[in-house]
DNA sequence: AAATTTTCCGTTACCGTGCACGGAAACTGC
DNA sequence: GCAGTTTCCGTGCACGGTAACGGAAAATTT
């Protein structure tokens, strides 16, 4: 049992052939007689031969590239957290002989996404990681990837099809459901406010829609009498936000519970900090630095976070596992845990 | 920029030395003059040399072994979750040429721990992972490891000393603090019950003590008037537990909040299920299957979990990073996030 | 100054696979 | 029977790094 692992040389010796021929059999290359082929296969099975990965990779001496296609972003925005995950993966990738590249586009400009896709295809990468931001364009893109036999992994959210290698992201509908559970804390509510972003989405795949469904379903099931107010704000006009909120809450003094389904809860903390006596119960999403700050000072009650860095790390890991070790991921759909962050556990995330 | 990665040969050429000497520098082996050493180091930095993992592992052709020393346990107990992490690591380890072994002992029998330690030392492992269960004996053990220059990593909790490579575990005091925060939900409390395990601990390192301190500190700071009742139960006499609890809660009808600082909240769910009308608010620790079950059916309000599987994965990862890549962990103390589990996010952990 | 030790470094034989090259044997057509 | 194909297979170098071996140069001792 302490014997060395069997090598190609052993098989060559056992069969009376040379390692060149054994190699040909292993790779199903032509130029082997049926008799020799059968003999080699038999010995391989008998000895339980497994090729030495290191030697193989060393001899191949290929360089592979994984490309992550992401919206470019300002400091402190959600996608920056994904970038952190990419940075984390850099080390392990480079020591596996894989280089990591990011390609950015403007998430509000479909043309820039098309350009990014073209760029990626020209790079001929060994694998691609992407969040599906523009639904139709993403379908077009991944079809091309499929045609080139380039594996790809979705993060953040996914599009249904049978061609993606894996998906790493939050269970979005359930995150809305959970949000409602935390917001109400099982206390009966009469009213609650949902703060929404005012923007024309043309063809964007928007997880917040699905999330809102989860939220509303929870409320309907548990507190059907609760009235849900939608309040719209525009992140491009930050100065107007406080006014809009002041106006709304003046008209609805009974509302003490606030939820928001995107990562921008920090947009309303300025308003909240002006009314500490109201003790609003506020639940938002994602561990942006600005959100965490408001969480720690008590302005925000809880955040639901989804480990965007881990999503990137795992997506890249799944690809490199495939590329280097030939291992298919065990699951295609990998839901990340929904982390509940409060002021007393936030700093450990 | 499309140039090949720099190799040892490149460095040899650039410095006018041979690759043997470069290799000596890379491994800090002796027999290199200061001048040559400096020259090589400079070129390495300039070219940004990174060794080729495959070639290195292939040439070394070593087999190393990482040993995890753990309390053996029944199905469904805490340490089983750590075992899951070990199983997860098996794949990545074996493809890195590392084999993983577990050595078990009885957590209530110090002699069995001594025997386990001896066994581990005889195995001459390349690295060791362990939770420090018996304080003094662990010190004796890790001293021997240190003498043999075997790196070791603490999980779950840690002992203060300067010899451990890394620690992966929950911030224990803070977890008690957080527990109180969740239990009270910022509502003023008059009374609360702490369920404790009755057992004589001889020399065991017990995280629950520290955790209770955190809990009590939170309560003292936020609700100084709240009376905390200690209720002791004995896990070896499960039939008595319900009676003890019935008796206690009959005598203290005002108590509606319950906390428990070990992983055994499932011991009291039988009692809780008999009194659904009381709507006890119950917070416990760790995502054991039995606990999760009570969480999902609403008996338990929340669990604070610490990713025991991740602890194992990361501990093993830190060791193999050191063994294979020579990378020291960036941090010695790695606190795991304290996950707040409720009935609606538990299944994603 | 010779003898010895120590310090330093180049050489070389691997590790297990991949693959190009070329040669031997078998098979073809005349 | 000979030249030309085709089929099959062995040889040998390459991949990048490791580490033992031994020799030259420098430092030390006698």
Describe this protein's structure.
The structure is a homodimer. Chain A is an alpha/beta fold. Chain A folds into three domains: about 5-60, 434 Repressor (Amino-terminal Domain) (Orthogonal Bundle); about 65-170 and about 310-335, Rossmann fold; about 170-305, Rossmann fold. Chain A is about 45% helix and about 15% strand. Chain A is built from 13 helices and twelve strands. Chain A has a six-stranded parallel beta sheet, sandwiched between helices. In chain A, strand 1, helix 5 (about 80-95) and strand 2 (about 100-105) form a beta-alpha-beta unit. The longest helix of chain A has 18 residues, at about 310-325. In chain A, about 40% of the residues are buried. The mean pLDDT of chain A is about 95. Chain B binds a DNA duplex (30 and 30 nucleotides) through helix 2 and helix 4.
**What portion of residues of chain A is helical?**
40-55%
The average pLDDT of chain A is 93
Number of domain units of chain A: 3
**Largest interface chains and counts:** A-B, 33 and 32 residues
Please give the largest β-sheet of chain A. 6 strands, parallel
- Alpha-beta classification of chain A: alpha/beta
Specify the CATH homologous superfamily of the largest domain in chain A: Response regulator
CATH architecture descriptor of the largest domain in chain A? 3-Layer(aba) Sandwich
Using the coordinates above, name the CATH class of the largest domain in chain A.
Alpha Beta
Through-space gap between termini of chain A: 45 Å
Number of strands of chain A: 12
- CATH topology assignment of the largest domain in chain A: Rossmann fold
SSE arrangement of chain A, N to C: HHHHEHEHEHEEHEHEHEHEHEHEE
Share of residues in strands of chain A: 15-25%
Separate helix tally of chain A: 13
């Amino acid at each position: 049992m302490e014997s060395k692992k069997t090598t190609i040389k052993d098989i060559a010796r056992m069969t009376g052939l040379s390692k060149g021929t054994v190699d040909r059999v292993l790779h199903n290359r032509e130029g082997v007689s049926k008799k020799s082929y059968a003999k080699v296969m038999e010995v391989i099975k008998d000895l339980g031969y497994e090729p030495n990965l290191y030697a193989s990779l060393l001899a191949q001496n290929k360089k592979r590239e994984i490309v992550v296609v992401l919206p470019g972003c300002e400091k402190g925005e959600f996608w920056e957290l994904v970038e952190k995950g990419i940075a984390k993966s850099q080390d392990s990738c480079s020591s596996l002989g894989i280089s990591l590249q990011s390609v950015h586009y403007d998430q509000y400009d479909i043309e820039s996404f098309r350009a990014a896709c073209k760029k990626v295809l020209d790079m001929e990468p060994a694998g691609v990681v992407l969040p599906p931001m523009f639904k139709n364009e993403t379908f077009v893109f991944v079809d091309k990837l499929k045609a080139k036999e380039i594996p790809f992994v979705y993060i953040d959210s996914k599009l249904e099809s049978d061609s993606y290698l894996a998906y790493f992201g939050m269970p979005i509908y359930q995150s809305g459901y959970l949000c409602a559970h935390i917001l109400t804390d099982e206390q009966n509510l009469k009213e609650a406010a949902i703060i929404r972003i005012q923007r024309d989405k043309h063809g964007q795949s928007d997880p917040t829609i699905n999330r809102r469904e989860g939220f509303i379903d929870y409320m309907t099931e548990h507190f059907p009498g609760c009235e849900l107010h939608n309040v719209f704000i525009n992140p491009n006009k930050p100065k107007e936000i406080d006014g809009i909120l002041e106006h709304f809450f003046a008209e609805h003094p009974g509302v003490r519970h606030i939820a928001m389904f995107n990562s921008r809860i920090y947009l309303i903390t300025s308003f909240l900090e002006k009314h500490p006596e109201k003790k609003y119960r506020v639940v938002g999403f994602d561990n942006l630095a600005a959100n965490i700050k408001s969480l720690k000072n008590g302005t925000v009650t809880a955040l639901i976070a989804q480990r965007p860095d881990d999503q990137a790390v795992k997506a890249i890991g799944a690809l490199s596992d495939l590329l280097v070790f030939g291992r298919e991921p065990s699951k295609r759909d990998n839901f990340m845990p929904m982390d509940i962050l409060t002021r007393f556990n936030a700093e450990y995330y």
